[in-house]
Amino acid sequence: MSGQQFVADRVKTIGTSGIRRIFDLGATLKEPIDLSIGQPDFNVPRNIKRAMVNAIEHDHNGYTVTRGIPQLRERIAAQLAEEFGWEPDLFVTSGVSGGLLLALLCCLNPGDEVLIGDPYFVSYNHLVALAGGVPVAVDLYDDFQLHPERFANAVNHRTKAVIMCSPGNPTGVVYREEDVRAIAQLARGHGLLIVSDEIYCMLVYDGPNPSPVRFAPDRTLLLRGYGKSYGMTGLRLGYAAGPPDLIAQMAKLQQFTYVCAPHPAQFGALEAMSTDMSAQIAAYRAKRDLVCRELEGAVEFVRPSGGFYVFPKAPASYPSATQFVEAAILRNLLTIPGEVFSARDTHFRISYAAPDDKLRRGCEIIRALAS
Fold first, then answer.
1. Regarding beta strands 238-242 and 220-225, do their DSSP bridges make them parallel or antiparallel, or are they unpaired?
2. Which of 5, 40, 149, 246 might form a disulfide with 231, Cβ 3.0–4.6 angstroms?
3. Are 173 and 302 spatial neighbours (Cβ–Cβ below 8 Å)?
4. Considering just the CA atoms, what is the radius of gyration of the chain in Å?
5. What is the largest CA-CA distance in the chain?
């Protein structure tokens, strides 16, 4: 018996993550040049690891209160007050993805529409649908900026929320301040919630990363995490901050799902918030510059200003980005085709969270395939 009859319809339309497919394929190759996975290539700083080890050794291994340990919540609140002059309700989540799922489950009724810029992070469409909503793609090609007029044209009486991510995944693009302000005005005018995924907010290289919190604090749900900035991806820790009624419902739902964020990791996050990561950020800025230099003139791309991704256009000699990626795999290079992140399959994602020698070798293969 296959068990197929036990599977709910809501999950049948969700395919296996294209990123994971490439990750699994990479495991079968001998010493691949892996520029596919969005995971920092630096180790968690020693002081953060020590804080978590100390927490374990001091028996901080049981449940915490659902909203997270008080020390961490107080530290987050102090940071938001300093950064924005903002005093929202907040709680600690099991990663930004955990916070996003709780948010969508708590704010969407069946048929509610959510506007999502295309290209988008791989899980956005699926999580909206899983929560009973309808994802509506808003085209951001070819510069991957917001283009508020396109969002305005997509709004109707069913629209409930907008999901934003800056710096973007897969593009690395940081949104323009005037566009973020315009989206905030759109949200105010139509009674929308802005869900702002800011997991890469520390990894910005060319200026500030404007947050909608600055322009619509009462209509913004802020989701931030510790995985990308501190190398703590597997420790699954983030936080949600925003309107009190929504936060209360999200925290209530966390009681019945995640229960609480990982206890020792919360002490690691507390230590992380006092840890200087400027050297790591400078290293990623240099990697960004290296990849852009290596690819200049070989493929079209928008120069990223944050995160650790470049999203080049596949050479015209290939019918799709997927076919280009498959050709690269034959040369032992792993990247991600654009169809994973978009209704289009014209671009491919490179993660430059990798050693410089691998970046150079990977870019050499891309140049050879594009010639």
1. antiparallel
2. 40
3. yes
4. 20
5. 60
Separation CA 257–CA 94 (nearest Å): 10
Which amino acid makes up residue 188? R
Q: Give the C-alpha separation, 114 to 195, whole Å.
A: 10
Backbone phi, then psi, for 116, in 5-degree steps? -135, 125
Domains within the chain, CATH numbers bracketed: 4-44+277-370 (3.90.1150.10), 62-272 (3.40.640.10)
Is residue 166 within 8 A of residue 295, CB to CB? The reply is no
Instruction: Render each residue's pLDDT in the chain as its tens digit; 371 residues.
Output: 567 889 888 888 787 666 666 766 667 788 899 999 889 999 999 999 999 999 999 999 999 999 999 999 999 999 999 999 999 999 999 999 999 999 999 999 999 999 999 999 999 999 999 999 999 999 999 999 999 999 999 999 999 999 999 999 999 999 999 999 999 999 999 999 999 999 999 999 999 999 999 999 999 999 999 999 999 999 999 999 999 999 999 999 999 999 999 999 999 999 999 999 999 999 999 999 999 999 999 999 999 999 999 999 999 999 999 999 999 999 999 999 999 999 999 999 999 999 999 999 999 999 999 99
Question: Of 19, 41, 45, which Cα lies nearest the Cα of 354?
Answer: 41
pTM higher than 0.90 for the full model?
Answer: yes
Please give the single-letter amino acid code of residue 53. V
Backbone angles phi, psi at 155, to 5 degrees: -75, 135
**Position of tokens 């700083």?**
45
Q: Which helix (H) or strand (E) holds 5?
A: none
The alpha carbon dihedral of 217, 221, 225, 229 has a sign of negative
Nearest CA among 301, 296, 286 for reference residue 352: 286
Residues listed for the chain: 371
Integer Cα distance of 288 and 299 in angstroms = 15
